[in-house]
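Table 4 source record.
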Amino acid sequence: MNKNEQPLPAQLDPIRSISFIWFIPILAVLIGAWMVYDNISSRGSLIVIAFETGEGIDVGKTKIRSKNVDIGIVKKLELNSPDNNVLVTARISKKNESLLVQDTQFWVVKPRVGKAGISGISTLLSGAYIELAPGFSETNQYAFKGLEDKPVTPAGTNGLNITLDSSGNTALHTGDPILYRGIDVGRIEHVHFNSQEKRVYYDAFIESPYDKLITSNTKFWSLNGFEVDLSADGLHVQTGSLESLITGGITFDVPTDMTQGKVLTSRGFFTIYPNKSAIYNSRYKHASLYTLLFNSSLRGLNLNTPVEFRGIKIGSVINTGFNHAGVNNVLDPSTLIPVTIKIEPARLGFEDNKEAIKTLDIEIKKSIQKGLQASIATGNILTGNKLIELTFSDKPRVKSSNFNGHIVIPTTDNQIDQLLEQLNNALDKLNKLPIETVLIGAEKTLSNVNSSLKDFEKLAKSFSEGSATHSDLQGLLQRMKRTLNELDPLIIQLNQKPNSLFFGGQQLEEMEPKGAK
């Protein structure tokens, strides 16, 4: 190549662009990332529910439902040793996360048989599921305490919460009805026993609009379905509705002789009475105690036996027997049996307060000086129940005394004892009669009567047909008949001419007077 020759220009190859084939993996990565993001963002939140048992719950199968719509599924099931319960981990769909608030409730729906009937039959084929009841709180929550049963009252229901207590034999259970004149207006939600107070407390809920019926003077009592009361007042039978007969329950109302009272707007506290009559028997808060000393039998006299004055109940018996201080040698015939009674001042027209007790004590002392006395009377002959009756007697006035700090009201024998005493007196008089002498005389009299009867029988036989005496009588009667027949002409003649016995029986012809010529 010569020096004068010019070099040829260099040939430059253009830089090649990225191949189209690289877009495929890049697109796949982007799609995968989007799918991961979409899955993470749409799969919802995990929640933990604590149950007492894991019965009926299966991982990957048990659904979370609300109003029969699937909103989640169980992902994990494990035992929580410290609390001895079961932790259920479930995932709730993203669009339903708003349901997870503080007062949201969960419970397992499965077949159940209870007093309220049969529920959860649909789960026999589909299997158990966890029901979610939405709450009304605005605070989110992801850990919950599951319920063992369906809540009695759904969250957010309008109404009034009340607390009831009972120290008697009333036994209520969660879900038992609260009735008002036969209408179901509420339910028992929770039962709690206080071992120190030995009382049972019930949390209950009254639904709106019936919550307006709960006032400061409302009284609750138990519905036993079928109630029989044998007392001094007789036989009382009361039946409730069919539901109360099967499941029991309680009812409420305002006593007819009380004002309606103020409507409650917050939680109220009430006592459950064993029956409606107990409301009237225990409505008075103040009473004065008195002692009665009897020397007769107390059979038929029980606790709560009524104390009456002129047929009106003024109190009741609260203690009977020898379990009183100061009672010794109970087998001594002269030992009196103390009976403690209470008299409520309000039943006698006084106020129901402590001042009325003092006033009543003064009046009782005055009445004792006027002859007030107590006796055991028969309240019901069929049942044998007794009652304490206060009356006034004409006996000399006595001063009041005390027994164990209580005023002693004088007593008198009861009606039965008085009747027995009269019977004993009659028997004593009967025993003093000369019964043996009377019986001997009666025996002799009976012997004479028997002899007379035998003689009369013989006499009667002698006049029987065919006997000699009977024939003689027949002949005598015939002769008397012939004699009477012979006397008939004489009687006729005497009737016609009474002087025929002296002047003969020939009758002269009567001369007829002749007329004047």
